[in-house]
Automatic annotation (TrEMBL):
Protein's recorded name: GNAT family N-acetyltransferase
Keyword Transferase included in the entry's annotation: yes
Keyword Transferase: yes
Keywords: Acyltransferase, Transferase
Length: 149
């Protein structure tokens, strides 16, 4: 089996959406077809600075990664944020996540980004073992605040 990593193409829609639904399910997000469709459109069209990558094995999408640039005022540089990374359960352990991370690092280098950054669930042990092979965990704790209206 031969695996390649490339940017998303319009014809990837159905397979990409299936993978993204799997990502949402893994993180116990609601089944929201509108969110999946909107995110696909953003990734497909490069809206909000999103770049979609997919790992393809034998003409089948097996994993996805969504990237976007962000300003880093503390260093006066641009970073690359990995929003989503997901491998189909039946394709895990074959290197797709590592290949996507490697391509993200290449893309960051090609576009002058100073870092590739992402968050994951603390209990996502299998993913963290892959991440530990490609990056360093930081000391930072993530917080979220709801907007007020």
């Amino acid at each position: 089996m031969s695996m390649t990593v490339r940017t998303v193409e319009p014809g990837d829609e159905d397979a990409w959406m299936q993978l993204y639904r799997g990502y949402r399910s893994f993180y116990r997000l609601s089944d929201d077809p509108g969110a999946v469709t909107t995110t696909w459109q953003w990734v497909r069209d490069g809206q909000h600075g999103l770049v979609g990558l997919v790992a393809v094995e034998d003409d089948r999408l097996i994993a996805l990664a969504n990237l976007r640039s962000f300003a880093r005022p503390s260093t006066a540089t641009i970073g690359l944020y990995l929003d989503d990374l997901f491998t189909a359960p039946e394709a895990r352990g074959r290197g797709a996540a590592g290949a996507l991370l490697g391509r993200a690092a290449e893309y960051a280098g090609q576009t002058g980004c100073s870092v590739v950054r992402w968050v994951t669930a603390a209990d996502n042990v299998s993913a963290r073992s892959v991440y530990d092979a490609h990056a360093e965990a930081t000391q930072w704790v993530t917080y979220e605040m709801r907007p007020t209206v």
